[in-house]
Sequence to fold (398 residues):
Amino acid sequence: MLRNLVRFHNCLGHAFSPPTVCPRGQMFKLLSVNSKSYSIITERKKFYEDVSISHGEGGMFEINLDRRKLKTPGGKLFTAPNEALAIAVANEWDTQKDMLKFYSMHMTTLCNTALDNPTFRSKDQMITAALKYLETDTICYRVEEPPSLVELQNNEWDPVLNWIEDRYNVVIGSSTSILGPEIPQATMDTFRQHLGSYNFWSLTGLEYVITQLKSVVLAFALIDKHITVEQAVLLSRLEEEFQIGHWGNVEWAHDVDLYELRSRTAAGALFVHFSSESSTVKRKLMQD
Amino acid sequence: MASLSSPLRLCRGILREIRAIKGPEYKQSLAYNYVLDQFRKNQITGERYCRAQEEALHASHSYLCLLTSTRQHIALYDMYHGKGQRDTEEMAGIVGLRLPTQPGGKGWEK
Fold:
């Protein structure tokens, strides 16, 4: 029995499980399966001084750490489709001090997922997975008591629900039953069509935001710039905030959770914004 | 729900974050120049309601949120997160023991 204990110990060894190796981050879940390779490492020493970006072929941008080019975990060359995204990623690498904290580099992680596609998903699969969250959308699940929470939910969640029903011309509704609301097929089709209009990169980001917020409605409200990141996170954690207001805040759990959720959602929202925008500058002459 | 801050507030906020990250030479960083550039470019518009400006504002608000929350998360993580377990050798060494060695392997190992 002692032998087994020692063997178990050696397996655990360096792989302490940080809060990120839990179903919130798809990337990390996959990595933790291959315990042989580098992947369980969450920190390593910083091995570069300067970070810069450069133009690659096809108008893509590459990140340079000192003289070497950044690569994805899958071995491909890291390329960003536009400058804004490249600068965001470069800034993440620049932010690191003596130890590289991979769990804080959300933009990089998102880019890596989009570039490598390690689970070989197609757009349709991602759309189906994203829409699955609609059936159990946070906003649609209401409680019946305590009355102050019911009121809070109605005041905070109803406006967003109304907004999305107007904007997309769909019917969602909320429910207090354990099964959740009945989403009509027309609604699903409308959303499916809308999601289909995003490119693969934006869809990666969008699905990430939906997974983090546990709500399709909130994700859409955020991506359509109807609410800010902080508001989206607050609405997603509404009941938790209610309980915190009642029972008190625990810094090492609630705050950590809050900031992590905020940073992941913000990264996701930015990622979608950068991946789906195209900007042009039109100069108009002033008429005297 | 237009509770976004003014562009000036956002710009200052982002630059403050960049300064907190980089230290004294923050003005030479990529992000600094790019952010300032973007804010300047989007300033002037002839239309009363400019959707692109709203979008840029939302994006910069998101970026500020990203920078602040990452910094706060790392601070809390460093403060509260467990450091993990020590190596078995180290652990044995703490109580003055050594791990047994068996040069021929233990028979049940591959």
About this structure: Chain B touches chain A at residues 1, 3-4, 18, 21-22, 29-31, 34, 38, 41, 46, 52, 54-55, 58-59, 61-63, 65-66, 69-70, 72-74, 76-77, 79-85, 87-88, 106, 108 (CB under 8 Å). The mean pLDDT of chain B is 83. The CA atoms of residues 27 and 33 of chain B lie 7 Å apart.
